[in-house]
Design brief:
Length: 250
């Protein structure tokens, strides 16, 4: 039997209109025709109940955790709304965390997980009980400008790119995935970060040049930027952050 799926959470309140309006103003959820507040994969129904009154006397029993891409900007927005912070936004081991109170005194937490935590989570290191041999490992590298990287990898190179928690996920052929994360003091590596095997390197180079890609013209490459020495023919180029990539003919 498959485990049940958590589809929604009901927030009981003596004043549903006020509480619902507060969540809409604070977090801008999608409001469904049936009145649910849609937050990603979970919906919240704010509903009036006659078995609750006043403030929540035990708010620590249930806490709504909102994972966000920019906790500092959201905290500024919440400050402008005049919210009461139980624990102001602070840097912890796994990212930025802050806890505030909604109008009924319920605890609400905003969380911006950092790149190290998310990388470890995706690699399965926090699940326990698995060995590295069974772990679906993936690689990652940094950039200094996520929007520029997203345009380059998604539009210029035509890869399947998604953005989550301020980082990019590049889904490559064969089910492989690469994490691209921001780093303010990014320094590009001196080695090749990604190699793209192709059937026809001349055609691949010409196509990429047509999309605005500039190939590295090292001393040991030909006029097209292709190295034809030992090993397969290969041509190198860089992403906007200076990371070295290549196309090579199999």
């Amino acid at each position: 039997m498959a485990p049940p799926r958590l589809g929604s959470i009901l927030l009981g309140t003596p004043d549903p209109d006020r509480l619902r309006a507060w969540y809409v103003a604070a977090f801008s959820p999608t409001v469904t025709p049936s009145g649910f507040l849609h937050f990603g994969g979970v919906e919240v129904l704010v509903d009036g109940r006659d078995d609750v009154a006043g403030k929540n006397a035990e708010p620590g029993r249930v806490i709504l955790n909102f994972e966000v891409d920019d906790a500092r900007s959201l905290a500024t927005h919440l400050d402008d709304m005049g919210v009461t912070w139980l624990a102001p936004l602070e840097e912890r081991r796994d990212g930025l965390f802050g806890t505030l109170l909604d109008p009924d005194g319920n605890y609400v937490q905003i969380i911006q997980l950092n790149a190290d935590y998310l990388a470890a989570q995706r690699a399965g290191r926090r699940t326990g009980g698995s060995t590295l041999a069974d772990s679906p490992a993936f690689s990652g590298f940094s950039v200094d400008d996520i929007p520029a990287a997203k345009r380059f990898y998604g539009e210029t190179l035509g890869l399947d790119v998604s953005e989550e928690h301020g980082m990019l996920h590049l889904r490559l052929a064969g089910g492989r995935e690469v994490l691209v994360y921001p780093k303010p003091e990014h320094q590009p590596a001196t080695y090749t970060m990604l190699n793209f095997p192709v059937d026809d390197i001349e055609r691949a180079v010409a196509e990429l040049r047509g999309r605005g890609v500039r190939f590295e013209m090292y001393d040991y490459v030909d006029a097209q930027g292709i190295h034809r020495g030992e090993g397969p023919p290969i041509a190198w180029f860089r992403d906007p952050a200076g990371n070295i990539l290549s196309v090579l003919q199999e």
